[in-house]
Amino acid sequence: MHERFKYRTKDELLQKAKELNLDLPYSDDITPLFQPYNLAGFSIANRLVVQPMEGYDSDDDGSPSELAKRRYMRYSSGGSGIIWFEAVSVVHDGRSNPHQLWIHKKNSDNYSRLNDEIRKSAIKQGTDPFLVIQLTHSGRYSKPEGVAKPKVAALNPLLDKTMPYILTDDDLKRIMDQFVEVSKLACKSGFNAIDIKACHGYLLVDLLSAKTRTNSIFGGVETPGRFRFLLETIDRIKYEIPGIVVTIRVSISDLYSGGFGVDENGEPDFSEPLHLIDQLKLRGINLVNITMGSPYFNPHVSRPYDNPVPGQNKPAEHPLEGVMRMINSTALFQERFPDIAMVGSAWSFLRQFAPNTGAAVIKNGQASFIGFGRNSFAYPSMPLDLIKNGMADPRKVCITCSGCSRLIRSLRPGGCVIHDREIYGNELKKLIADEK
Ligand SMILES: Cc1cc2nc3c(=O)[nH]c(=O)nc-3n(C[C@H](O)[C@H](O)[C@H](O)COP(=O)(O)O)c2cc1C
Ligand code: SF4
Description:
Distance between the termini: 32 Å
Structural class: alpha/beta
Order of helices and strands: HEEEHEHEEEHEHHEHEHHEHEHHHH
Number of domains: 1
Mean pLDDT: 97
Low-confidence stretches: none
CATH topology: TIM Barrel
Number of strands: 12
Strand order of the largest sheet: 3-4-5-8-9-10-11-12
Shape: globular
Bound molecules: flavin mononucleotide, iron/sulfur cluster
Number of helices: 14
Strand content: 5-15%
Largest sheet: 8 strands, parallel, barrel
């Protein structure tokens, strides 16, 4: 049964996990989080990652606005080893909202300047963060002018309430060209790695599951067609930018019928996702960020919460079951591919205990990095507090209230309405007033 987080001590948390028959990892010793990791010659200071978190607040031309810069400066002074930039569109048409970041020839200098600022501020804290840019096309969830303009690889009756535009092979070839061109700009702008986003229902994971796309080189029943877009894009980027680290953030199971990594009932079936990682391994990919589900269809899967966004139903499962699904599934991939650094997701529900569970997971070899999404909005300086005090401050952690999700669902700038109240609490007040 769904329940809000009400565990004040480690014992209460572990007792609840036991009642649910969950073997929640836990370690009092958090030093595993601070073991450096060598990734392609780059020494990453610790195992803590700021996960990509869209702020819906770019300038009109797609550049980071003052508000976006503020967000990244908060991350950079917080001490995480990896800062994984939020979804940045490769074309205007593929933006999820009119203020989604979008990088192109005319504004890439603005990204360079931001990266310089991030590094300067991080170095003051003694870290040199590894910077990943997440490149995306929003596909079915494109809203470049604020109204839905869905563009899909293949229809899915479960998701498509109106008839979307089905992208042609020529459209897809042009989009692939953009991924490659934009990767070059991103590399020049100082990013250490390019993430080709293949998760959360957007275009690239839609392509991975496009079994009903016929008469196309980018789909079909067999995997070579469906994997072609992602793998060819990666091959081209690696060829054009020798030495660049390429990674993916991938939904290893959409958990809905007709999605990627599912059986005929929409339940997880990892055979194809494992095959995909095999293909990536052959290409020398050494970093993969694991996630599951879609924020549009089953948001509790990717981000277990206390409260859903108003209007959405609470799921039947306990949020700890969602947390464990992610831990166990990531572990399966990490154990199968020990040479690829896997980033685990969905930690914020665990509040101040997340670092202890994360440390146990690292120690057990069940993931290589622990990525925080909502908690990075709420408490970006947690890594520094962990170093200084050996624990996270329970008064500062994310309380998984879904306030930030509610803001971005309404196409407003997203951030923590609880702990960054002056800006985002006010945004929420304005939203509530408008809704009345
Ligand atoms: C407001 C908001 C924006 C997000 N933006 C992105 C994004 O740009 N790219 C992405 O891969 N995931 C995005 N996510 C998902 C998070 O990266 C993360 O996987 C999720 O919140 C679960 O982690 P957590 O429990 O630490 O929050 C977003 C989540 C939220 C709530
Ligand atoms: S608004 Fe703040 S506390 Fe609520 S879910 Fe988002 S980050 Fe967490």
